[in-house]
Amino acid sequence: MSDFSVRSAVAPVDLVGSKIEVRKALLTARRSRPESTLRNADARLWRHLSDLVRVTRPSVVAAYEPFGTEPGAHLSGPLPRLLARHAAVRVLVPVLLADNDLDWRDWDDDDLLGEAEIAAADLVIAPALAVDTTGVRLGRGGGSYDRALARVAPDVPIVALVHDGEFAHSLPAQPHDRRVTAVITPTAGMIRLPQ
Predict the structure, then answer these.
(1) CB-neighbour burial class of residue 49 (10 A; exposed 0-12, middle 13-18, buried 19+)
(2) Are 130 and 162 in contact (CB under 8 A)?
(3) For the segment 159-186, what is each residue's pLDDT rounded down to a tens digit?
(4) What CATH number does residue 132 fall under?
(5) Prediction pTM value
(6) Domain residues for 131?
(7) In sequence order, what are the residues at sequence separation of 6 or more whose Cβ sits closer than 8 angstroms to the Cβ of residue 11?
């Protein structure tokens, strides 16, 4: 990852319980956020993310298509389209397969490119319910992203977008979990994580 610096410090929060309990609490908290709060948070996330893309200058970004209360769902347009227009990069988005693995396609094309296409990315923007200080990413529980992230080269930055209050001291981890290299929150900006 480049010398892109942390914008400000943020104190991690304590998220206590099993993965199921923590997921439930985080999803409940996300649903309780007013629409205006989500829009404002996403505008700040976008500024931090666009700064990262400007500095790192990737040629292929693997991103996700946020929905509901996920970070990025309340932007002025779809996150993949904004990335493609802002940085003139190729943007890959996931397609969930029947076995819970992820195939990939160009964001503006329906043709599937195969599970291994994520290896073409030189920046990955991953969804998360929470991330801890060691890079453990808590997803929705299907294991789809853990499988996909295992196909990413070790030196490729994997950045998770989360809301404020979703950067934790510690989260439960399993041996197959692929850790993220950085997290972006609306207030703190990008926080690089130890590898």
Answers:
(1) buried
(2) yes
(3) 999 999 999 999 988 888 889 999 999 9
(4) 3.40.50.10420
(5) 0.91
(6) 19-192
(7) none
